[in-house]
Amino acid sequence: MRRAAQFAFVMLTFAVGVSKAMSADVQNFAAVERGRYLAAAADCGSCHTVPGSDHPFSGGRPIETPFGVLVAPNITPDRETGIGAWTDEEFDAAARKGMRRDGKRLYPAMPFPYFARMTQEDVKDIRAYLSTVEPVHNSVAANQLPFPLNQRMAMTVWDKLYFKPGEFMEQRNKSKQWNRGAYLVEGPGHCGACHTPKTVLGGDKSDKPLQGYTLQGWVAPDITSGQGPLAEWSADDLAQYLKTGHNRFAAAAGLMGEVVELSTSRLSDDDTKAMAAYLKDVSGPKAAADSSADAHVMAAGGAIYQDLCSACHKSDGSGVPNLIPNLAHAATVNTGDPTTVLRVILQGAQSVATDKEPTGPAMPAFGWQLNDVQVAAVATYVRNHWGKAPPVSADQAKKERAALDARTN
Question: Binding positions for heme c 1 (predicted)?
Fold first, then answer.
């Protein structure tokens, strides 16, 4: 009897140990999967992976800022050049507080002012996921800013002006869907990092949230409640665009194409709908009309449009739903800054292809065929025939051409 009792005790102890181990494995797996999803929501891959690289999150991608170039660091679990030797607390401090392991401040190219809205648990789950990716030995010199901007001491002043730590707080008078969308937009999605206008010091203009900004040679348009360029977009249109990169009005390309490919297309339908519901509730100014385009310029631009553009966009500019943008409702057409319109005329653009919209049409480049006066004319025509945006000058076309050549070279 004693041996039987001892055996039963041993087996029970073994079973309890196995049960605890299995429970821990399930919990760890759940954390990793949550982290995988949140890393996509936070769009970590866009900055920390060189496009076309076989080594995700290994860093080395240059990040163009108004002050110079920063290079995204390695966040794989390599212990020497990545974050493998970091504690969870150190990772959280970097993500949500902008604090490096050595106590120095991070530059806001790392969007810690937005990630500060995330919960500590969410950030810990992202770390759990990153710990499972392939460790890559890749040492990156992140700070390539010119003197004195490369001195991080100035970040202490910047933080006091623009960094407000604190997790996202739900609004009780709003729906669960609205609050989920607000959390994603204001936190991991860090939409304001591109879409909110910036001060001369690179901080958000807090009185103009999500009202549009130009960076890295692309216009991130006003995405507020529909009083601006997205006036005719419904919440369903926004959700479809985030999920597929296409809708009846527009197609994502450039930086937004990357965001869709690596981030929003990987979110659940519920989450993209939540983001759309929140964005449609964010107030913004009514777009100011400017119909001062010269009649002769409009006539010249119209002729160029009919010759080069109408085959795809159609004579009435309506395009093809879910494939070719409708010029009357494409957000970047009717903005004050013509950068994106000039860029796609000069250089062309490839729209994003996603699982739900696998066809990503491309617009050919016309910079080789049109001079600066002609580029300005067709840009002015497109922006004024289907909108009321300011006319474009040949000098603006010339500057954009030079900027594109500089990036290429």
Answer: 44, 47-48
